[in-house]
Design goal:
By secondary structure, the protein is mainly alpha-helical. It has a domain of 85 residues. It has five helices and no strands. The termini are far apart.
């Protein structure tokens, strides 16, 4: 009788441990899938392959744009560290920094490239606007920030 109970207990423990190990493996795999690969270029790094192709950049322009990008990425990190507790000031500084960055980029591009670059920026801005509108039109699905089942505020 004792051996049967012990055998059943061991089987139960073995199954539990096996299930836990499998779930840990799946969690690790999922994390690896969602992490961005190191080879992927940062969103704000310039020039990216699309920009090189669309604007037909030469080697000198590519080098200059990479230098500009590295410089402003460094400045952004410094601003983020300096104003981590003051979002409004950080956003204000970033806006002026982005304007400076755009001027430097425009100094590297020729007139035809500037037209294409401006057109691409406008298209990207339109896409972002549509995404924001879609995000705001989702309705009350109960997710984070939706208000959920909270009572109406008192007046």
């Amino acid at each position: 009788m004792k051996t049967k109970i012990l055998a059943i207990l061991l089987c139960f423990m073995g199954t539990t441990i096996s299930t836990y190990a499998q779930s840990e493996t799946k969690t690790t795999e999922k994390k690896e899938q969602t992490q961005r690969p190191r080879e992927r270029v940062r969103r704000d790094s310039l020039p990216n392959q699309k920009m090189i192709k669309d604007l037909s950049l030469n080697d000198d322009q590519i080098k200059k744009l990479k230098d500009i990008s590295a410089n402003y990425n460094k400045k952004t990190k410094e601003l983020r560290d300096k104003y981590k507790d003051d979002r409004a000031t950080f956003m204000e500084k970033m806006k002026s920094q982005n304007e400076e960055r755009e001027k430097e980029i425009n100094n590297v591009l020729n007139d035809e490239q500037k037209k294409i670059w401006e057109k691409q920026k406008k298209e990207q801005a339109e896409q972002m606007k549509k995404m924001r509108e879609n995000r705001n039109n989702r309705g009350d699905r109960g997710g984070r920030g939706s208000g959920g089942n909270r009572p109406a505020p008192r007046q």
